[in-house]
Amino acid sequence: MSKAANQKRPVAVVVQTHWDREWYFPHQTFVARLIEVMSRVVAQLESGKLQQFLFDGQTAAYEDLLANAEPALVTRVEALVKEKRIALGPWYVMADEFLVCGESLLRNLEIGIGDAVAAGNCQYVGYLPDTFGHIGQMPQLLANFGIHSAVMWRGVDLPVAEFDWQAPDGTRVGAVFLTQGYYQHPLNVTDWQAALARYLDSVAARSLSTELLLTQGGDHLLSVDATAARIEAFNQTNTTYQLVEKSLADHVETAMIQTAGRRQMICGALRNNAQAFVLPDVLSTRRYLKRLNQDAEDRLLGVVEPLLAQLQLDNYPTRYLQDTWRMVIQQQAHDSICGCSVDQVHREMGTRYQLIDQRLKVLVERALAVAGMVSVEQHPGQLDVVPDVFADDAIFTLFNPLPLAFTGSLVISLFLRGEKRAALSLKTSTGEPLPCVLMSVRSDAILRSPIDDFPERLEGHRYEVMVHCAIAGLEALACVIEQATAPVGSSPAAAMPAAIENRRYRIFLNDLGELSIANRLTGQTLTPALSFVSELDAGDSYNFSPPPNQQRVVQTRYSLVSCRTLAGVQELVLAVTLTTPQSLSADRAGAAAETVSNTGVLRIRLFEGAPTIDFSLEWTNRASDQRTRLVLALPSPVDCTFSDSGFEWARHPVKYADYPTCVTRQEMPVVVNPSLSTIVAGDLVFLHRAMQEYEVLLVNGRQMLGVTLIRSVGWMSRRDLVTRGVGAGPDLATPEAQCLGQEVFEFQIAMGGIAVHPLSVAQRYRRPVVCLRGSTSRWAGGFEIDNQTLQISAVRRVGDSLELRLWNPTDGDQPLVFMPTPHAGQWQRVTANGEQCAGSATLVKPHEIVTLRCRRQRN
């Protein structure tokens, strides 16, 4: 390098592409484009026109390339990766961080790093260029995999590029803020020298480090053949900057050294949108995708993995389980799960979720078959003692998937062949009576297909049964069904106003048909406790935006459908109708003249002794261009709320919406908050399944909690929003994002506080005791953690070890005490990738994520 070059400011040129697997085109269209782009990139690398290439930081695109490209190209790509000229990882996909659970993000890294290491070149930088904001625990999650730096764009609001990012537990990583964004391709354009100089001048003013960064590339872009020549030409003529191709990891290392001791620290989640859009309303766009994702996560983490860990199987389905995880995580890519792609993408996602559902069922069924709980053969060998392949659920097992004791009531579903039974009697396999209440019965039929004979359709009935039981942590309770001698009666419905009650709550309709919830412990009554609000939405899949002539419709009144009392449970069923404009007017300035009726059926159940009220809402949406919210009265004023995201219990100061009246290039400040399963607003606790967007509202001077049910929008992106006047993608119509039709919402409410951490109640809500067909003696012994505050992230088998991951949501130390168990060896703390590490196995520090393993002894 010449003396003149040494006096110029160095610029690391990281040639890259950001590869959304699906977005404004469906997946296979982008696969074809991927092959074309990478064919040219490979030729440039081989010819010396390009020195290094960053393959976006997510290995799923690399996986797509290997699966679809011609073998000759695959061989060339693999060689360049091994030569460290194509950088991969550390992610499998660039997931949305707020819509998926922490364990999914961890498995995402686990798979991505594993893929990149196996290929020969893993990039150990937390590269997050386009994610719509970042969870607060990301630094701790990265550090668990040996990654101590991060690069991102959205969510940061700083005057300079380099900073330290600290998680709630105190873990820090050095970070680089892409102040002008990751999508920078000045070397591709015609007036490339001027474009490059403008870019460098803009980032130079905001970089603490001497070395600047150019992420040369963008969404689905190739690198031009002239890249090297233009870098050389620029260096010969420009007197201020000296360009050099580098890897992102090398630049980050240099920048952290050059800025040591000068970086500002930022703590927690990054969702500020002053400098870059965070597109917050994707939290509720195409809500059905969020429901399907949580269902898959909960079944993997709350059924499949604990079940496989506790059933002592010789043939563990390692590959099938790993591939199922891959399918689930592929759906979590930010443009996929956020619902902000074209309709065809999300139709294909629906098909893939059906495939995931099939795989999850197969994983459970195969485990039960190998354990001898069910049979797959109609004609087993003479020495085999197996159940009838056509057996129903007359013999079943209740399995507790958490290492926490369970005592209480749960509702299970059982299929029994033959005529309808008026009542059921249950007992354990040892003959002890199992208290139960028959809730409902319906006709049903299932198909069984033995592997050695013809399939057979089984006719019978599906029974919804409430069972009261006590099961130790990770233990199983074998049960049998007997026909009761007399039906269990129910009391007649009460006269209006209809009411149900237990020791804690009384729920009733007042004379106006409004729902009231009375807390019998505090004497406080909320009326109307639950209402529905619809407001016009002229936005797109990324942002809510009110039209100039906004119209809101509020419904607080219900009509009674039924009310009944059974032993240990009471149920109130209500109907509600919300009449709204059919859509926006043709000019999108206000409401259309036509109206539609949106209808719902709300089922409320009170279980004796339970701290929460159980709700299920079947909602039929017939309106377009609107947002419907469930609005809950707050028992007392609040200045903040709390909710959960990945491995975090986060505080959110109350911010009220102040909608602009004209279109600008700025995104409106974020007012909606994310939640995976739990919201706390003062004395109100709201637990839910995939109702992931909420906001504190001020209605006639009274604070309310608004939880989004449906966002109906007809465009992927628009450029006329008062809440974001610049496009977030191509302006494409997405009529299926109106989400017309029926959707189901499940949630629980508690008032006046509960005895344990709210997340502990939500944990059991999302991972309840599981009902399995058949029974077996092949269970490994269970174990329990004597601390209800610690949150269980995963229980799984890894090789011949049992792995347990948990985290502490509080600001104080939490003891980790295992109940004595004969099967378990000594627990050892390990990193997320399984390496032994320092740290106590008996104490979890505030906000800490802990992974433990112990060797299993076979029974």
What's this model, at a glance?
Strand 29 and strand 30 (648-653) form a beta hairpin. The protein contains 14 helices and 43 strands.
Task: Report on the architecture of this protein.
By secondary structure, the chain is an alpha+beta fold. 21% of the residues lie in helices and 31% in strands. The protein has 14 helices and 43 strands. Helix 2 (27-47) crosses helix 4.
Helix content: 10-25%
Number of E strands:
43
Low-pLDDT residue intervals, each spanning 5 or more residues: 485-496
Count of DSSP-assigned helices:
14
Strand order of the largest sheet: 24-25-26-27-36-33-32-29-30
Structural class: alpha+beta
Q: How would the global form be characterised? A: globular
Residue-averaged pLDDT: 95
Radius of gyration (Å): 29 Å
The main pleated sheet reads as: 9 strands, antiparallel
Distance between the first and last residues' Cα? 68 Å
Strand content bin: 25-35%
Oligomer status: single chain
